[in-house]
Structure formats: structure tokens, C-alpha cells
Amino acid sequence: xxxxxxxxxxxxxxxxxxxxxxxxxxxxxxxxxxxxxxxxxxxxxxxxxxxxxxxxxxxxxxxxxxxxxxxxxxxxxxxxxxxxxxxxxxxxxxxxxxxxxxxxxxxxxxxxxxxxxxxxxxxxxxxxxxxxxxxxxxxxxxxxxxxxxxxxxxxxxxxxxxxxxxxxxxxxxxxxxxxxxxxxxxxxxxxxxxxxxxxxxxxxxxxxxxxxxxxxxxxxxxxxxxxxxxxxxxxxxxxxxxxxxxxxxxxxxxxxxxxxxxxxxxxxxxxxxxxxxxxxxxxxxxxxxxxxxxxxxxxxxxxxxxxxxxxxxxxxxxxxxxxxxxxxxxxxxxxxxxxxxxxxxxxxxxxxxxxxxxxxxxxxxxxxxxxxxxxxxxxxxxxxxxxxxxxxxxxxxxxxxxxxxxxxxxxxxxxxxxxxxxxxxxxxxxxxxxxxxxxxxxxxxxxxxxxxxxxxxxxxxxxxxxxxxxxxxxxxxxxxxxxxxxxxxx
Length: 490
Ligand SMILES: [Zn+2]
Hints:
Distance between the termini: 66 Å
Bound molecules: zinc ion
Helix content: 40-55%
Number of helices: 20
Radius of gyration: 26 Å
Largest sheet: 6 strands, parallel
Number of strands: 18
Mean pLDDT: 96
């Protein structure tokens, strides 16, 4: 399985290349697959490619299969001919319809063969999308059916078409993790995380982070991982940091139909906007009032175009952030758009240990931008490595100030990381930019680092010289450490 290669990591986020052999293209990830409704094209697929740089899109083979007016044309012209698109085309199977209407009239084998026949580049079996919060028995039983279908899908002859293996398991992390490992074992190619749309619709970003993290534990570093139905740019950075590579967006078109305007911080209603907070051609050439005065079709198309500009713009922003090693700073900044996103970011940080495994050892700079920064993977990694750093001497000074000859050894202390040998001062992440007026979380994290070091060396005597740490931080330092304030007179 070599259709996906990771070029660079930041946290669990990845810049990758997905080779789609049937289309003869390589798609750079993370990326978005615009959802194209074969019946109603708000923006033509050719325009998606030429104006927005779309390399891949997704459409629904179940709709084509069941359509009196499109079934024959698509079999005759092929999917690329029908849609007028040369890039990669992924097809969904009807699982969404199954979830919405409770019943569909194709089997996995039929729909996979149909997808292959019409020239799909990435096909999808009919899995069972188990919604969040169902009882465990239902989630387990439906997972069993999904897994049987994935195993069956792996035996269907689909030539060069890649086949996806959706991961279900509702909101049970252990089921998601197992389902993901089982999906990998089928040898299929792309891993959509299914039935997460209800979580996103209800702004349950913390639950979403837990579900994605659980799936990723089961998947390991195979890929690519597709967050199925995720089309709002506000959550791309967070999902990418957790290790999602593909998103798909019906939102750009659906929202446009209801006069909803996407931003990286959330959604605005057109009639509540006096100014467009965006630099895209639509927003620089028009005012909200002008759009408002247009006929519905014209307005819908322009809003869809704006929505696509924001969507692709955020994908590029995420890619550049991974390239620059500041994806976590971007997640932090996006988390300020909505309290539910902040919950999502905090839940993501609960998985810092998992994110740390692929996080590069060295990056440009660590910016401490909020109290959440104290829980970032880099802080955890620094404190973990205290176990491997030797302490020489019986009397050791840990200080935010300068060295003292009275001690056998002097270590620096930097919130939020804690103690560090002075010779590491110029190495990542200790080159961090931390505000002078920092917060309690940074001091408390640093105190936890002090405790880690002190507990590792029961025979060494430690003195901590701190710069006005709050009591909540000092309380976390073991009692046997002598404390002095940097600015107190001796
Ligand atoms: Zn715009």
C-alpha cells in the first residue's frame, strides 16, 4: 500500500501526497473534495479546477445509479466526461441515504461494480453510519456488518480504483479504535471517518476530537484519513492537527442557498453583514447590499464562490502552517472563533501524548499564545526527556535568573517547560517566545516539570529561584525544594 506518502508532520498533521492511479494524478493533502451534486451544479466542476485549483472532488454514485436521466449518460460518457473534470473523482455509495432514509436498494458489490464501471477513481462500499450516542449494542452490531462489508469489498475486482474503508463506532472511543484497526487489516486504501456530521452540526467539537483521536490510534500512520462530511473551514486546522488529510464540502453550496457566508471563525448571515471580512474577488468586487439586491440564483452563485475561496484559502493556510511548523498556533487562533471550538482544542490537547509521537523534534519557534499552549505536545516531550538528562552534583540550582557558584550545577527554568540544562537553551522548544505577562497555566506546567525532575533524583538537593510564581504553581513543587523569589532580598 503505497498510494499515500507523508512529506512532513506538525503535531499529528501531515503534508502528504495521495497517488490516484486511475486518474493518473497525485493529490496534495490536506485537501478538500467539493461535493458535486450531479443534478445541480452551483459551480461547474471545470470551474472548480480552473479557478479554485480543485484536484479532486466527490459525487454520489448512488444518486447516479438510481437516476433515470443520468444513469445511461454516465455509463456511456464515464464520470469524468459527464462532469467535465479531469482530476480525481471519489464516489460515495449511498450510506448517507441509508442513514437518512433507513433503506437503500443496492449491495456493496453492486455499487462498487457500478462505481468501477462509471470510472470512479476512489469507490466506497455501503457501510452502516452509526449515529452518535446510540446504545453500545447497536454500535457493536452495526460495526460488525460494516466490517463484513469492508472485507467483502476487498475481494471485489475493481482494477486500479482505490476503495475506501469507512470507520464507524459512534461515540465509543474503544469501538472507533478497533474499527479503525480492522479497516486497516482489509488492505483497502482510504479511511473515511464516518457519521461525524451530527457532531459537527451540533458543535460538539470536543466529542469530535475524541472520536478522531480514537480512530487515529487504530489507524496508525497509514492513510489517507478522510473526515467525512467536514466542509466548514473553521475546523480544518483542528482536524488536520489530529491527523485528518481529506475533507469534503457540500457546505459551500448548501450554505450559499440559505444566504450563509462562511468564514474561518464561523458562519455569518448575509443580511447581517454590512462589510465583507474577506479579500476574495467576490468580496472585493461587491458589497453585502449589492448581493442582497441580486436575484436568488446570482446571489447563490457568488456566495458559493466566496465560500469556496474561504475553504481553499484555509486549506492553503493549514498546509503552510504544517510546512512552517506552526499548525498548533493556527489551531489556537481558530479556537477563538467559537467557545465550542475552544472545547474542541482543549479536547485535542487531552491527546497531546498521541500528537507528540509524530511532532517534529525541532521547528522554527514555539509561540506561547494562550494558557492552552501550556498543554501542547512540546511541553510534554520536554518534561518526558527530563528522565534522560543527567543531573551531576548534590546541590542543584534551578533558576529563572543567573547561575551561582554556590551550587554544583545550575539549570535554567522556563515556563511552561520547566527546568532545562543550560546548554539546551538555544534548542527547540526552549527558544520559545513566551509573553512577559504570562499566565498561571504556564507557571503550573513549569512547576510540574520541576516536580518531575526532583522526583527523579531523590538524593539531590534542589533550590528553585522563581520569578514571582503564583501560589498555585508553588504548591505543585515538592516540599523538599528550597524556594526563593528572584527579586526578593536575601
Ligand atoms: Zn470572500
